[in-house]
Amino acid sequence: MTGPSASARQFRHRALRALRTLHGRAEPARPRTRARRRGRGARIRTVTAARRRPAAPSLAPAPRPWVRALGLAVVAGLGAWLGLLVVGSVHTQVGPMETSMTLRPDLTGGTRINVSPLGALELASHTAPLRLDVDVEQLDPVRSTALVEHPERLSGLEDEVASDVVAGTTELAVRSCAAVVAGATALGLVVYRRPRRALAAGGLALALLAASTATAAATWNPRSVLEPRYSGLLTSAPSLIGNARSIVTEFDVYQQELARLVTNVTKLYDATSTLPAFRPDPGSIRVLHVSDLHLNPAAWHIIASLVKQYRIDVIVDSGDTMDHGSAAENAFLDPIRDLGAPYVWVRGNHDSRTTQAYLSRMKNVTVLDEGRAATVGGLRIAGTGDPQFTPDRSVVAQGAPAERMAGIRLASAIRDQARAGTPVDLAVAHNPDAARETDGTVPLVLAGHLHRRQVEVMKFGTRLKVEGSTGGGGLRAVQNEKPEKVRASVLYLDRATKRLQAWDEITLGGLGLTTAEVGRHLPEENKPGAKPSPEPFPKASPATPAAPSRGPSGPARSPVP
Questions:
Q1: CATH of 245-526, one of 1.10.3720.10, 3.60.21.10, 3.40.190.10, 1.10.8.420
Q2: How does the average pLDDT of the chain come out, rounded?
């Protein structure tokens, strides 16, 4: 009996190979010599060898362990930081004060206590990558008044404050732990998309917070309260209430001075309730007039507080915001973006063209110069910058004649606006000599420069209001025997007629803020029993010829353009 033919054997081998493939079994390798004996071609041998060849390894190297660890640490740290930002602040009562406490990442650590608008003091309380910010938001008038009337209660205030601080920081610690874990875990899910890696990031963030807290506890310096660093209006606080060391040894004197300080700060926060009977129409336009900041950073805190408290529609700055007008000082102007109201500015004799160009690029700032007019906050305002830049000693100052010529050009521009059917409601110049030249062309003109207040109705009916220094004379004020007072005014203008209804003069007691006063003033025509208010200020029409303007020594001009 003859065996199967070669074609039958070949069919059987193919069938067995197909079955092994279906069951996941690899076909055993066969020597090439046997394949040659069976007469297979080179193509079949090549395909069979390729099937037996192992897959080529990947060319991408696996990430090193330290790279993975570094990436996880970055995700954990960034997530913890975002968590702290989102969690916000813990609001707590500390003695007679409403405060908010916040933890912030910081390389040097320490504690910062912000007392707006007075300034801040910094304590080197610990060295850790976390800083504690405490913001004093407001005083409880009832409790603070009780302390003033009964100074003996101050002896028990220390224990009460300590207990409040412990309660507040405990709540803040719990919320911060939850915030850093949640923030790091959420960011880990976004980056890795693996729950285990995300939980690892959250755990690492918690470990970082615990390590930072332990470092802060280990480096805690309770004597830091004896050596605080003051900023803003509090820079002269040691000279007013004694430094911290003398407070320890002369506590009785400190109690009396602290009571007085609490009283005055309470006046600042509660000033609106003690104003005269006049109540501005809710629809009136509220203008905050500031001037001569002279690089005092505390001025921004005061302005922001007034904008919020009085619901200001527009801020008018009559110049001398800087001291030397250098480009290096421009960063001082950045807080203007966050004041919460439009800002109208004219150049003072300490402000350079560089300063003016920097402010012109801010969206909420309107720079007025050479009689330019703009409508801001419902008012048509025209202004001019000071023609002199006194820090430049290479140029001889031209004095009052140059100021009067600038005022004449401003008055001419105001007349042109009236002829064009866009009359000006308010004019601004830095120097009062320039502002006086607008008499008879506009109802109200604002100025600064003198560092003292001055209000007068000029010959042809224009009211000139000169503001004091909102920066308390600036950083140079510390050279004086007594700090210069901080001054600003809130003007109330009728929305229909644009006439001045009343104004509040806010006065803070210099860099130390030992006093806080708010005085309400009414124009003569608005006082009880006065004659009815006159018609709106006369405005020129296109058919009315312009009255001739007098020069520095020329004849007087008529009140109506």
A1: 3.60.21.10
A2: 75
